[in-house]
Write a structure and sequence with these properties.
This protein has a domain of about 55 residues. A four-stranded antiparallel β-sheet has the order 2-5-1-6. It has two helices and six strands, in the order βαββββαβ. About 15% of the residues are buried. The protein is about 30% helix and about 30% strand. α1 runs antiparallel to α2. It is globular. The protein is of the alpha+beta class and about 120 residues long.
Length: about 120
C-alpha cells in the first residue's frame, strides 16, 4: 500500500461536557470505522504532560483543568478521496452536536503519511 492519508482533529471540550463528549465520540468512532477506506480511528484525551519532567521519566498527570480538556482524533484512510467523503459525512452528521460541547471550533490537520 502506498502512503495513507490521515486527518487529525483537536477538540477543546468544555469542562462540564466531558462525559457527554466521551459518550458521543464512542458512538461516532464506531460509525467512523465503517466509512469507506477507513484504516483506523483513534481518540486520545490529553491528561498527562512532559512539562517539568526530567528527561527519561514518564509524563506527569495534569493536576487541574484550565479552560478546557483537549482531545485528539486520528483518522487514517487508504486514499485522499475516501478521507474527503468521510469528512463530509462526519460534518453532515455530527458537527452541530459536537460544537455545543466545545469552547471553539475544532482544528483539523491532514496529510499523507511519511512512513
Amino acid at each position: 500500500m502506498e502512503n495513507s492519508f490521515s486527518e487529525m482533529k483537536l477538540f477543546q471540550v468544555k469542562p462540564d461536557k466531558i462525559a457527554e463528549f466521551e459518550n458521543l465520540v464512542t458512538l461516532i468512532a464506531s460509525e467512523q470505522k465503517l466509512q469507506t477506506g477507513c484504516i483506523n480511528i483513534k481518540y486520545m484525551k490529553r491528561f498527562h504532560t512532559f512539562d517539568g519532567v526530567e528527561r527519561g521519566n514518564p509524563p506527569r498527570e495534569l493536576s487541574k483543568i484550565v479552560k478546557c480538556v483537549k482531545y485528539y482524533s486520528y483518522w487514517e484512510f487508504d486514499t485522499i478521496e475516501n478521507c474527503g467523503k468521510a469528512n463530509g459525512w462526519f460534518f453532515d452528521n455530527y458537527e452541530k452536536e459536537l460544537q455545543k460541547l466545545l469552547i471553539a471550533p475544532f482544528d483539523i490537520n491532514s496529510g499523507y503519511s511519511v512512513c
